[in-house]
Amino acid sequence: MMEGTELGPEQKRLLQTSTLCQRQLRKILDDSDLHTIIDGYVDLEMMEFTLHEVLIASISQVTGKSNGKGIRIVNDTAEEIMFETLYGDSVRLQQVLADFLLISVNFTPQGGQLVVVANLTKDQLGQSVHLAHLELRIMHAGGGVPEALLNQMFGSDEEASEEGISLLISRKLVKLMNGDIRYLREAGRSTFIVTVELAAAKGPDSRT
């Protein structure tokens, strides 16, 4: 009903973000058997999207919690990457990013900062299609995610918590996208590094 009315730019953006989050929720509710995902038996969809849509929807899901802790979320991704036309399962990618953002916010100290940055490289597969290698880094201040929780993400702890199961599922979804997850600890900050393979339409030369 709202889509059929005259909306301002900000209202349109909020409506689009709400729609994307609803799609993600429906997908999660359809996951009746988590073992199917953990065992890697999930069909991924192929749809056109931009990273801008996915990131905005993912960040919106943790804004309430980050605001409550006084955490500033900064997106340092170049504009041309944000609006690159990509093809893949955007809903699953959104689910994964929202999960890692939430975990990062949970373990960022009060008043800290969380930075998201993406890099994209492309390999030509044919006349009109590129294989897109997307790398997303979620950097957050503080001591980082506990080692026990990271072990649950990698499936090396049978007594997994709710957070651990969520991370494990997200990593399995990333693996289905021919990607993986790494976690780096540095002095004063830690970083989730998420890599996935997508498709991209033919455009400018490959870039990072």
From TrEMBL:
Entry's Gene Ontology cellular component terms: nucleus
Signal peptide: none
Keywords from the named record: Phosphoprotein
Keyword Heme: no
MF-aspect GO terms: protein histidine kinase activity
SUPFAM superfamilies for this protein: ATPase domain of HSP90 chaperone/DNA topoisomerase II/histidine kinase (SSF55874)
Domain Histidine kinase: 1-200
Pfam families per record: HATPase_c
Cited InterPro entries: 2C_system_His_kinase, HATPase_C_sf, HATPase_dom, His_kinase_dom
Phosphoprotein among keywords: yes
EC number from the UniProt entry: 2.7.13.3
Enzyme class, first EC level, given as a word: transferase
Chemical reaction(s) catalysed: ATP + protein L-histidine = ADP + protein N-phospho-L-histidine
Full protein name: histidine kinase
Organism, as annotated: Hibiscus trionum
